[in-house]
Amino acid sequence: MFFHPMDIFIFLALGISIWAQFKVKGNFNKWSEVKTRTGLSGAEVARQILDSNGLHNVPIEVVPGMLSDHYDPIKRVVRLSEPVYYGRSIASVSVAAHEVGHAIQHQQSYTALVLRHRIFPMANFASGVAPFLFIGGFLLQQLSLIGIGIVFFSAAVAFQLITLPVEFDASKRAKNLMLSEGILFNDEEHGVKKVLNAAALTYVAGALMAVFELLKFVMIFLQGNAEE
Fold it and tell me: What parts of the sequence cross the membrane (predicted)?
């Protein structure tokens, strides 16, 4: 009863997501073995780019975990995993610069980032509520619950779609800033692209899966209305 033709596309997107995760880890591990010619660590690169952009008040913290790196817009702090913070490889500086890219986006009120921050609470709440509405709608055979679930889930999908330009822009800023500030040499750009592109693919796969999931429920809802 729950299988739908759109599930094929959802499974395909899931497969891409799993493959992307392997690509991220594989590229990070590969380029972690390649040291930068400047010899700078991820933390040093992050500090240099932050300071050169007037973000002296943004601290850098080291956090446990693998690829747990992120920028906290609420506390305005860049958090780097240990391999990135201490590492002096192409992979380490790429990830560090990417997270700093988000801090610069915040400083400049980058439109997509501002929008993502604003809808995050609603999207977070909606993503938790929507599954229960869908399940309730199917079990009780109430299309109205599925319709409400679609509205809630749309907010979560919108969040994922808005995340794409935010992540791509942060990666573009990271590469350009490292080149302009002499942190990265032209012949090292290839490795940076490999690391950042693999990471971006995970967001693309996640967005695809969410979109296909939404379309599936929309089609079920429309089909149910047509049969009434």
Answer: 6-22, 119-140, 146-168, 200-222
